[in-house]
Specification:
Alpha-Beta Plaits; about 20% strand; globular; Aminopeptidase; homodimer; alpha+beta; about 450 residues
Chain lengths: ~450, ~450
């Protein structure tokens, strides 16, 4: 360990220099004109992975951008880690809002600015440099390692699922390690252990069979906008709870330990509300803001439309009004089942004066890697050693579909050991990673690989 | 009277032929390329009015299309009728849905088909032919008469108000006579004596200061679509009544006579619902469908929009949602006052979790010409004699802004003695007027001019 850490210490400048070279490749996956750049980034990584001692390195073509694979499998009897990352980046527009050119990474005030620094090239590089340190000093890793780096994360990972499905034997592992999420704040290391799922619905509410003149017909039929508003307003009760029968049945309650952990996070409702520009927050009574967004299922209207929406006044009583409504799910809710509960409830409450059509547009399962699982425990210990302070526990209110796919196809949990920070401008101008997070991340990666086998062995005894 | 009616009888074919010539002029006011045609229609009418014996005939230019004026003012001591009509027509598209060319009026099955037959050239002509019959036989009219025929009704009557305002002395009269509305059905003569007014509002409901990711923020702030839905759904109670305090304060109750009259109309809720394709009607409890749409104030959502409204699923928690909401008013409600009641109520009920902006976009006053007023009584007697059956009483749920302007500027009520029918396709292909309505209308016009002075005299005694 001493020599591994010493190697890192001795090579900090070179590490940064190499990362800058990777960041210089404009691998914007959504721009067809950058397709060759995306491929160039894949090849650069492939060569770099070979140079640090990884084996079976290969650039796999897909119908879209390629996936880079590499492994090191000589830690017999030890656990296998599947390291996932992505080397494609978001577009850089509006370009004039960047302080320095997005593809010429620059250090200012202890931060490295450039597209991809946090999301996700910088975070991939954290692990590559830890792996290099192991292989160039000890000549071995404490675990077996498989890497997959994709080039389509920013455009929906369209070809990853089929790749994992087809090569499930090659990718077999004990857990997935992913570094693509932020800390709770600058120098506030945190481990994210849960993601919410999603059931995304559409309601079309139909009243009269044609648009009517609201003067000549107003007051005789149920206006579908009003009927839809009545349906929507009935989906929450006065305590902010979702009223769909059975909605909370499968919700895994927060443990006392989790609630304590969330309470320790430096969160202020007043600051949160001020940042969003609202006088008062809203949500399910009996839960804190962080509990609500991370660990409670919620229902939100994502869109609504119907009738006349232009400038001025048009006296129409529309035939139809529609809304997009999505529910965020937590373990152990299921997307399909929740969609069914929603549809059944809407059909039950819709008045006889209108008709509704309910569609299930999209779904994703929630994911959790319990805080007592070996992977999370190893990450917590590693963060403590890597950053010199006890990490915080957090979840994320959104979804990461890949995590759900890994669970579904490979049957394994993902440890979300991210080193970014909330204000990192991941999809905006002036994206950055703090150098303290970058170097602390490399140390944490070293400790993670070091700790994991011990904790898993302990677990099995 | 005998000779007047005999003259009409003897000239039916010529009357129809002359109307066809007027209908042949494509005076589509909204098409700039038809501007000369609109002017041609005005000049045709001006010449025709002179030929039948009207005096002071003049085509008044406006910044838009001209207004045709004419009068006959030799009935000393008798009431003065201001006859209003419009000679402009709606566009004819889609042209291929017309059975015969829109500007070559054709008779089929007792109906005259062509653009403007019902709305409003045919109905103007009804009165011109009754006037002609009086002046060519008796050499005099039983009343004083002033005519204004405008060319911009179908595009909002933009220059009529200023014209009436500037020439209020010239237009001074005891009542306005307007024939631009339908009967209750074919051969079901009816007199329309009330119109609803309008207060048209917009609510913008603002939650967070920017669009948020519904995963990362869902469950922590009040979604403005949900808040708006809650506001809208609270605007009606379970009995279908509008909940705005004071909303019904100024509503003039239906008289027992009016309610009886409406009940006599051949209306079927089942047929009405079937025609609109709804299983059940909706509205204020305690009132019939016709009472609700004609004589009760109502509140309708005309449009709603917010968040993501495209195809598929986008997980946004929008910053803002908006709705257009209009209230239809009945005497003696006032548009401004109702708009204020609305705004005050919304401001009172809006929760602290969101902000609202309430705008008053447009307003118009309700209008009524009581069924016991001399004008309506004369119309009822005239319809009874002209069509051989007792007419029905009806109101109209929409507004006719000109009626309100006449009341405001000239201080007089309008008698809506329309001879069209509900399925006349006024703004659609195959517009028609039934020949029985056309000829019955001419006789009714004769009787109206005949009866009015007697009834008014009676009234004054």
């Amino acid at each position: 360990m001493e020599s591994v850490l010493a190697y890192i210490e001795a090579n900090t400048e070179r590490y940064l220099e190499e990362l800058r070279r990777l960041l210089a490749v404009p691998s914007v996956s959504t721009n067809p004109e950058n397709a060759a750049d995306v491929r160039r980034a894949a090849e650069w990584l492939s060569e770099h992975m070979q140079s640090i001692g990884l084996e079976h390195v290969e650039v796999f073509p897909t119908p879209g951008h390629p996936i880079v694979y590499g492994d090191w499998l000589h830690a017999e009897g030890r656990p296998t880690v599947l390291l996932y990352g992505h080397y494609d980046v978001q577009p850089v527009e509006p370009i004039d809002l960047w302080t320095s050119p997005p593809f010429e990474a620059a250090v200012r005030n202890g931060r490295l600015y450039g597209r991809g620094t946090a999301d996700d090239k910088g975070q991939i590089f954290i692990h590559l440099k830890s792996i290099e340190a192991f292989l160039k000093t000890a000549g071995a890793l404490p675990v077996n390692l498989k890497l997959i780096l994709e080039g389509e994360e920013e455009i929906g990972s369209d070809h990853l699922e089929a790749f994992v499905e087809e090569r499930r034997e090659m990718l077999k592992a004990d857990l997935v390690l992913m570094s693509d999420t932020p800390f709770f704040g600058e120098d506030l290391p945190a481990i994210c252990y849960g993601l919410r799922g999603l059931s995304y619905m559409q309601i079309d509410c139909v009243g009269p069979n044609r648009d009517l003149h609201s003067g000549s017909f107003g007051g005789t039929v149920h206006n579908p906008i009003q009927a839809l508003a009545e349906i929507i307003s009935g989906l929450h009760d006065r305590r902010g709870r979702v009223t769909i029968p059975g909605f909370y049945d499968d919700v895994r309650p927060l443990t006392a330990k989790e609630r304590r952990a969330f309470k320790q996070l430096p969160h202020s409702d007043r600051k949160y509300a001020a940042d969003l520009g609202v006088r008062e927050l809203y949500g399910e009574k009996g839960f804190t803001t962080l509990e609500r967004v991370w660990a409670r299922p919620t229902l939100e209207c994502n869109g609504i439309w119907g009738g006349f929406t232009g400038e001025g006044a048009k006296t129409v009583l529309p035939s139809k009004a529609s809304a997009k409504i999505s529910m965020r799910l937590v373990p152990d809710q299921r997307a399909d089942r929740t969609a069914k509960l929603f549809e059944r409830h809407i059909r039950k409450i819709v008045p006889r004066t209108v008709r509704v059509n309910v569609s299930y547009l999209h779904g994703g399962e929630p994911a959790i890697t319990p805080i007592d699982s070996p992977g999370v425990r190893a990450a917590v210990t590693a963060l403590k050693k890597g950053f010199g302070k006890k990490p915080l526990y957090q979840r994320e209110g959104g979804s990461i579909p890949i995590v759900v796919q890994f669970k579904k196809i490979l049957g394994i949990d993902t440890v979300l050991l991210g080193f970014g920070q909330p204000d990192e401008n991941a999809h905006a101008p002036d994206e950055f990673i703090s150098l303290s997070h970058f170097y602390g991340g490399i140390r944490t990666s070293v400790y993670f690989f070091q700790e994991l086998p011990h904790i898993m062995e302990e677990e099995q005894r």
